[in-house]
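Bench notes, bay 3.
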Amino acid sequence: MEASRSEISAADESEEVMYTSVKFSQTPPPRAKAPQEKRAPCLWSALLKGLAIGFGTLSISLAIALIWKMSDCHPQCPQQWVAYRGSCYSFSTEKKDWNSSQESCRAQEAHLLVISDTWEMDLFKRIQAKYFWIGLRNSASSGWIWEDGSVLSDAKVHSNSPVQNCAVLMQDQFHASSCEVRAPWICEKTVR
């Protein structure tokens, strides 16, 4: 048994136990500094603020211009008049001959209706009334002339007699009539 004890002692002596103490610090060790980037002064911030103010001002200006332009599209018409594409229209309920109808429009700083394009004609096609005096008259030398002096083109005036020299708008067509017939009329004025 003694031999076994000496073997154990020799084994104990050959094994040295080493203890090391390790301390952890709470702050990390300093890192190597990276080369600092050159920073521009706060110019970007000022530039962005300036752009934001500029775009805001531009947006407000555009909104005001749009509202102003829209008011041109929808003019302020007198009471009982109808606005359409920069003009105002009045539909009479009384009946007069063509010349008296024309005078009535002029007294309101307007003229008898002059249909200048297909959009305007489309508007008046919707009217279900029998007929209205319009500003179209037959001239012996020039044919059918609008009140503004333009010549009727691309349309036909239906006529039954050579003495019918004034035109009425009758259910989306132009019809010749004696200027002495009493009929309602349509006045038109441009509002700017």
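Next record in the batch:
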Amino acid sequence: MNSAVPVTPEPFSTDEAQRVRAIWSDLDLPGIVDVHTHFMPRPVMDKVWAYFDSVGPLVGREWPITYRADEDVRVSTLRDFGVRAYSSLVYPHKPNMAEWLNGWAHDFAAGHDDCLHTATFYPEESAHTYVSRAIQAGTQVFKCHIQVGDFSPTDSLLDGVWSQIADSQVPVIIHCGSGPAPGTFTGPEPIRELLHRFPSLPLIVAHMGMPEYTAFLDLALEYPNVHLDTTMAFTDFAEEDAPFPADYLPRLADAGEKILFGSDFPNIPYGYTHALEALIRLDLGADWLRDVFYRNGSRLFGIG
């Protein structure tokens, strides 16, 4: 398979969809499982986009939203790409928000059978109760955003949440790395403390733990239920400021069954094709790519 990165096709174009489909077809896969995509209530998505529109001074460069479009167009685009399953990752930044987001995400998944039923939580007295309801309602994946929420994952208000998640084994995609900017509670040490208390937690560390790649990769190799998602990692955009250490590539190969493809669609400053090609150019082999693009996510989420 040619590992050269081609010129990125225009977003939303037939050419782009054909290129994405060619990548997974060449690997004899039935499509892609993308664990890290965002669908949110429109007022919330508008605020997220406004944040990225203004984030230039924070990250030192512009962050254009490549797939800024109406919700139905975004859904259709993922389907045109051959994405077999995706998520509607929502996350609160204040109390009394998570349960409302969970209701919206539940309805979204009910109307889109290729979307993983997604939920979220925040450290508050009601968290134990609404997380219990979400699990009983069929939630397949939780989203936890340590940086945006500005809370510690070891907050005692979350003890009942983590114990339920450990018991149910519903995976949690957790943004806990310090990229694109460090937060009060980001970094590997709070997660190491959390896993010490709840060693069976099914965590998916978003963005490969960027920029603390090595520490989070070590945690994934140490704890059987910890995974990593590739969201934005290895792309030109990420490599400019937070390059993955070349001497850790062999350990990346060893962790092949622990790594899931994630794109951050639609909030990425480049084309979807580039996220796939960035993994291809790591030159870790076709079987590694099959695991990352489809098989690991299919196994974890029971996708036929």
